[in-house]
Design brief:
Elements (H helix, E strand, L loop, with lengths): L1 E3 L14 E6 L2 E4 L8 E5 L2 E7 L3 E5 L4 E4 L6 E8 L1 E6 L1 H7 L4 E3 L3 H11 L10 H16 L6 E3 L18 H8 L3 H12 L3 H18 L4 H7 L5 H12 L3 H9 L1
Helix pairs in contact: 2-3
Keywords: DNA-binding, Transcription, Transcription regulation
Protein name: Helix-turn-helix transcriptional regulator
Pfam families: AraC_binding, HTH_18
Length: 256
C-alpha cells in the first residue's frame, strides 16, 4: 500500500504483485481517461466519485465500492473524497468478480477485509499466510454483494448531445419542443440506447443526483429544489421508492 498525494504518480505496471492497494485523501481530483491492465476496486468513506465510461456515467457514493474490470477506459472525478482506497487485482482474481462495471453495496465484513487488503504492502505474500486466507472471503463477499442502481446510460444519438447532465433533465414534452423530435421518437431513442423510457431515465438521474447531494451534506430543501420536487416529504417518498430506504437511512448506512 502507498499513501498518495494528489500530485503523485502511480502505475500498476511498475509492480509485479497480483494485488496492489493505494490510499489517499484526494479532495478534488480528476484522473482523466485511462485504463488498467488490472481490475480496480474504488472505495471512499466520504464524498462521491463520478465515474465516466464510454456511454455511461456512474456515481460512487460513500460507503459503496465500484468494480472496474481490466482494460475498461474510464475517468474518475473525485469530489472532496475522504478515506479513498483503490485495490487492483490481476486477471486471475478479476475474472472471478465480473466483466462489467458495477457499484456494489458494502457489508461490514467486506469493509474490513477491503481495508486490510488495501493497506497491505506492495511486497505482501498473497499465496500463503493470513492474506492468502483473506482472499477467498474477499472474493466471495464481492461476488455476493448487491448492485446499487447508480449507473446511468447516456444516449449517443446526436439529438441528445445538448442534455446537461449537471441539471435536471427537462420533461419529455419540453425536450420534444427543444430538439424538434416527437415524444414517440425520443421514447424510441431512449429505449434503444439506454434500455428504459425517458421518464424512467429521468427518475434515475434524479436518484443519482439526490445521492450526490446527500453525500455533500446538502439540506433537504436544497435537494428538493435541485430535483424539481414539490416538498421535502416528496423527496423522502421518491427516495424510498427508488431505494427502499429514506434519505436519512441511506446516509446512516455509510456513516456507521
Amino acid at each position: 500500500m502507498a499513501w498518495l498525494n494528489q500530485q503523485d504518480k502511480f502505475e500498476t505496471h511498475w509492480y509485479s504483485a497480483p494485488i496492489l492497494g493505494i490510499a489517499a485523501e484526494m479532495g478534488q481530483h480528476d484522473s482523466g481517461l485511462h485504463a488498467h491492465d488490472m481490475g480496480q476496486l474504488l472505495f471512499t468513506q466520504q464524498g462521491c466519485i463520478l465515474i465516466s465510461l464510454e456511454n455511461r456515467l456512474s456515481l460512487l457514493p460513500p460507503g459503496r465500492v465500484a468494480w472496474i474490470p481490466p482494460h475498461v477506459i474510464h475517468r474518475a472525478q473525485m469530489r472532496s473524497s475522504v478515506g479513498y482506497r483503490s485495490v487492483y487485482l490481476s486477471a486471475q482474481y478479476a475474472n472471478q468478480i465480473g466483466h462489467e462495471v458495477m457499484i456494489l453495496s458494502v457489508t461490514p465484513l467486506l469493509r474490513e477485509v477491503l481495508e486490510r487488503i488495501a493497506i497491505a504492502p506492495f511486497d505482501s505474500q498473497w499465496q500463503h499466510g493470513r492474506l492468502a486466507n483473506l482472499l477467498p472471503v474477499f472474493i466471495d463477499e464481492l461476488k455476493s454483494a448487491s448492485k446499487e442502481p447508480t449507473l446511468l446510460a447516456i444516449p449517443q444519438d446526436r439529438r441528445m448531445k445538448g442534455l446537461n447532465m449537471e441539471q435536471l433533465p427537462p420533461t419529455l414534452i419540453e425536450l420534444a419542443k427543444t430538439i424538434g423530435a416527437s415524444e414517440k421518437t425520443i421514447t424510441r431513442i431512449f429505449l434503444r440506447e439506454t434500455g428504459v423510457s425517458y421518464q424512467t431515465w429521468r427518475q434515475q438521474w434524479r436518484f443519482i443526483k439526490a445521492i450526490e447531494l446527500l453525500a455533500q451534506g446538502k439540506p433537504y430543501h436544497f435537494i428538493t429544489q435541485e430535483l424539481g420536487l414539490t416538498s421535502d416529504s416528496a423527496l423522502i417518498s421518491f427516495f424510498r421508492k427508488m431505494s427502499g430506504v429514506t434519505p436519512r437511512e441511506y446516509q446512516h448506512s455509510y456513516e456507521t
